[in-house]
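W.,

You were right to be curious about this one. When I first looked at the sequence I had no strong expectations either way, so I just let the prediction run and decided to look at it fresh. Below is the sequence, 451 residues in total, followed by the output.
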Amino acid sequence: MKGKVLCLMIAGMVFLAFCQPARGLVKGSYTEEAPIKEKDFKHPTDWLELGLEVRLRAEYDDARNLNRKQVGHDRIDGRIRIRFPVKVKINDDLDFNIRLAGEPRYYVRPPSMNKQLTRHELLFDRLNFTWRNAFDMPLTIVAGRQDLKLGSSWLISDGTALDGGRTGFFDALRFTYKLDDDVTADLVLVSNHADSAKLLQPFNDRDDDFSEQDEQGGILYLAKKQGKDAGIDFYFIYQHDTKRTRATGSEGEIYTLGMMKYGRLDDNWQYCMEFAPQFGHKNGRSLAAFGTNNQLIYNFNDEKKNRIILGYEYLSGNDDINKNFDKGWGRIDTWSALYQGGIDGLDGRSADSSNMHRGYVEWVTMLTEKTEMRCSYSLLFADENTAAGGTGALSRSGIFRGQLPRVQIVYTASEHIKHQLEAEMFCPGNFYNNSANDPAILLRYNLIWTW
């Protein structure tokens, strides 16, 4: 009965979203009054800006552990993420920003779950002051809880790896200095805690951790533009992990140096190359690792905006998983919601996806003026078979992880409403043993409202 109610709710919301009238098509009170109401809602005064973001998600996955014989191998869940952003304008250069967020989840399957309703709490995922032109200089300071994405976001994008798609913030102090029109320098000091109640206790706290350990550190990021669609970035990341709360957590100090070069070869070809050597110590072992992420893009420059992306990503591995490349603050599902944070946890820390070679091809096209489709195919290999080979789900000697086709369709109905449909399948290779040899699938639908 509960499953039927959830399906009816989802179907009803989708129907309402598709049936909303388009602005400007009908002459009358709707077209004339809606902008005024929207302005009143977003800007009730000249010093206050309000917003509302709602994401309805329905998801089905099967054999996430590559074994359909396990109890509870398939899952069906519905989630509603609601966020209320508020900006208070203190003066022309100083803002106070706050956002309240929640994402309750209800699991229809598996029925064996003790708690089918989870994460029903509210928390502040944004709470900061932003000061522009600080000290009469081309300097912007953001102090407090904030989102942070630098460069390609490959290694700097998510400060709450265990929190899924609900949050991704950093508790940080960020200085952005514009050296000239083409050069920007960022210095970020980070102090993240595993305990979600350490700094700001959530309402109806459910004791959900943000990460496996406390994380302090700093980031220095230099970005230089070199003409249109071209530039070069350099960065240094220092991460000090302490007080791990889980067996998969870490303690130690990790240093990552990075460089990203991107640009155009001609009107059709683009490229992006990123390299990141890493060293330090982790869980009592010395660390010397390397990662790289590269793309070569061909733009057809046609009315459908067709483009082909050829890519290669490498995160070094070792017999000892503590010596694998550590993605640090980049543990987010950028190319697979099924593999990253799910299947990759069978042989390492969830959402790290280290000890990996990934070669892929992706086709992007506009099916209609408002509909984008992305189709990709990835081949995944392990850098090394690990010391855990022969145990759990891992084979003794194989290095072929598997293949992963993925399709994503995004329909932008209006400036406020967007639909996303995604389908993935992972076919395991000989890196896994016979007990973990079943294909895994994921189907996901998002309906997003933004005001």
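Here's what jumped out at me. Residues 1-37 have pLDDT under 50 and may be disordered. And, maybe more interesting for your project: The two ends are 33 Å apart (CA to CA).

Coffee later to discuss?

I.
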